């Protein structure tokens, strides 16, 4: 099924990348990367492991600094911001980690309340509790509110991780390998959730993945990262049907099941 991006505003760019370069010693990970991510779209960065996908999103949130080029996120350049301003920018960016990054000693309720209590000190206990219940309902896991992460399945932990990110109502969502380690049915549920988040919260998202099923299901546009460069950018169908690139085709043949 073709992904429908009904809320994309191509007149507003939330992430703009120009001439981005990043190396680690002699390993040139990113080479002259150029990309715009529009308001309301799901942009998938597709590539095999070790191609620099995670390096790219770490640069976007200011966890790494590029060697050259510019990155603008919500009009600001993360590599040039003082720490306090960088932290303020990061509150507008939700980062869904591959591992879900939940606190094992906290219940689901406490995990979700923590970012609100830490960053929104003017909220009452009742307001925090209401926000927790609302976001849990949005990911379909209201019944897990008093459970510990160890009592949840991998797919449930992934959903709770996304909920914890959403509770601060970020303008941008970054998903790092959202379907990694999940069975096909759970992966499909996570893909559907990413689309629901886009629709309900009007988020702009960058989805890092090597999973073609995830890319096809969630991406309004796909940016294929090969040899440190975006060799192809377009819809899933445009890339897979029109590309003569042997690397893309071999990746498709290996990875995808119709």
Q: Which helices and strands appear, and what pairs or packs with what?
A:
Layout lengths: L8 E16 L2 E13 L2 E5 L6 H8 L7 E6 L9 H8 L2 E4 L11 H12 L5 H14 L15 H13 L5 E5 L7 H18 L2 E6 L2 H7 L2 E6 L2 E6 L1 H7 L3 H10 L3
Parallel strand pairs: 3-7, 3-8, 5-6, 6-7
Antiparallel strand pairs: 1-2, 1-4, 8-9
Outline the structure in words.
By secondary structure, the protein is of the alpha/beta class. The chain has helices spanning about 55-60, 85-90, 110-120, 125-140, 155-165, 185-200, 210-220, 235-240, 245-255, and strands at about 10-25, 25-40, 40-45, 70-75, 95, 170-175, 205-210, 220-225, 230-235. The protein folds into 2 domains: about 10-90 and about 175-258, P-loop containing nucleotide triphosphate hydrolases (Rossmann fold); about 100-170, no CATH class. Helices cover about 40% and strands about 25% of the residues. α3 (about 110-120) packs parallel to α5 (about 155-165).
Essential attributes:
258 residues, alpha/beta, Rossmann fold, 2 domains, 6-stranded mixed beta sheet, 3-stranded antiparallel beta sheet, 9 helices, 26% strand, globular
Q: Note poorly predicted spans.
A: none
Question: How many DSSP H or I helices?
Answer: 9
Q: Give the CATH superfamily of the largest domain.
A: P-loop containing nucleotide triphosphate hydrolases
CATH class of the largest domain: Alpha Beta
């Amino acid at each position: 099924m073709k992904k429908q991006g009904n809320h994309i505003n191509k007149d507003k760019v939330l992430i703009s990348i120009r001439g981005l370069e990043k190396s680690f010693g002699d390993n040139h990970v990113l080479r002259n990367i150029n990309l715009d991510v529009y308001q309301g779209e799901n942009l998938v960065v597709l590539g095999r492991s070790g191609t620099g996908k995670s390096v790219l999103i770490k640069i976007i949130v200011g966890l790494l600094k590029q060697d050259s080029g510019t990155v603008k996120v919500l009009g600001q350049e993360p590599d040039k911001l003082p720490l306090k301003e960088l932290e303020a920018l990061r509150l507008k960016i939700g980062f869904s980690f591959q591992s879900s990054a939940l606190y094992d000693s906290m219940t689901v309720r406490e995990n979700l309340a923590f970012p609100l209590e830490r960053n929104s000190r003017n909220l009452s206990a009742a307001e925090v509790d209401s926000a927790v219940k609302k976001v849990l309902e949005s990911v379909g896991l209201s019944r897990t509110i008093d459970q510990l992460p160890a009592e949840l399945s991998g797919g449930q932990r992934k959903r709770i991780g996304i909920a914890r990110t959403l509770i601060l109502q970020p303008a941008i969502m970054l998903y790092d390998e959202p379907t990694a380690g999940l069975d096909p049915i759970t992966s499909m549920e996570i893909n559907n959730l990413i689309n629901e988040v886009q629709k309900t919260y009007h988020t702009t998202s960058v989805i890092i993945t090597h999973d073609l099923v995830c890319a096809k299901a969630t991406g309004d546009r796909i940016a294929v990262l090969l040899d440190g460069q975006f060799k192809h950018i377009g819809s899933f169908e445009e890339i897979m049907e029109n590309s003569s690139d042997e690397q893309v085709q071999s990746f498709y043949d290996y990875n995808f099941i119709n």
